[in-house]
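Running co-folding for pyridoxal-5'-phosphate.
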Amino acid sequence: MGKFAALQAARACVAARHGMIDLPQTLPQTGIGEEAALALLGAAAMDLRADLAAPDVLAHMDPPSADVAARMAYLVAQANQNLLHAATSPFATQAEALVLDWIVPAYGMAWGQFCSGSTLANLTALWAAREAGARKVVASAEAHISIPKAARILGLDYHSVPVGEDGRLLRSALPDLADAALVLTAGTTGRGAIDDLAPIAAKWRHVDAAWAGPLQFTHYKPRLAGIEAADSIAISAHKWFFQPKGAALALFRDPDAKASISFTSSYLARPNTGIEGTRSAAALPLLATLLAWGQTGLAERIERCMSIAEALAERLAADPRTELRQAPETGVINWRPRYADAERIVAALEGTSSGFTIDGEFWVRQVAANPHADVEALWQRIAAALG
Ligand SMILES: Cc1ncc(COP(=O)(O)O)c(C=O)c1O
């Protein structure tokens, strides 16, 4: 059996076992013991999962965790530090400040805040925008759902701007921005487009770089030209920084913005900035990863993802059975079969694709988040789905 056929067979085996774990349906009165619980759940959690690092997987914006990060995260969970209290987390607090010092200047920002995801990083940034006087949020029709969600939470009006053929916000369709927080996206969720980030007059400019922000450390940096002109930037560390889930950054240009989103109380040694109170030492796995890989190692992995997307896109464009929507700008590929139903293909490629609708037409979406993917293995799966 070939390498990739063996992978498929193993996957079918796992799928057959799905649902076969025997667990109590109500809270048990007596426990089974820690070792037994770990044996049961640990095996299930690892066996019955999509392997994000498999050679034929290119699914969502979910890279496999860096091994060094996963191992550091285990120690972080053991120590269970709360970064709200610097005195009880002295090293983790320093580590957080250090990793921010490594990252923040690369984007031309003054300070940064860890958050547990970019939904929260976007909300935190737009909260600061509102405190600075923004009264409405303006973003493209392909902005992530966390942007209208943040506007709703913050009680701000929301204005959606159409995108052009290339998926970028149409600057010519922008409303008056004098009282607006303008949100530009660097790597849209659906097709990975980067809005024009060139400076523009607005009350506040936020860049949602949840997905493509880490390109700043690669040779693709020119694609983010203009990001330094933002007032705030959101970046998911659990995307292209290869961190376990629960890590993102909100970065800010104005040092004074910090006070506007900070609260204090007599029980706190220092103000609590941002939305979350208790915060984990998510900075430590990120510090460990960047220390282990250096900027070169990080860039290599992201650039590999980009090359995989480019090579797969070339094959999709060349094959008479498939149509490519556009060249991938940030590793997101949109394509469709010429002679089959795209929704059927997404179903057949379960676990390695999703769908995205552009101008009322349904496209297969694949995201090169997996640096271990192999174009040949990916192609074999696509070819099998095409039939
Ligand atoms: C462009 C963009 N912004 C924000 C988010 C939200 O990030 P999170 O899922 O970390 O909350 C995503 C998630 O995919 C995204 O693609």
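Result summary
Confidence is low (pLDDT under 50) at residues 13-18.
Residues 131 and 260 are 6 Å apart (CA to CA).
Job closed.
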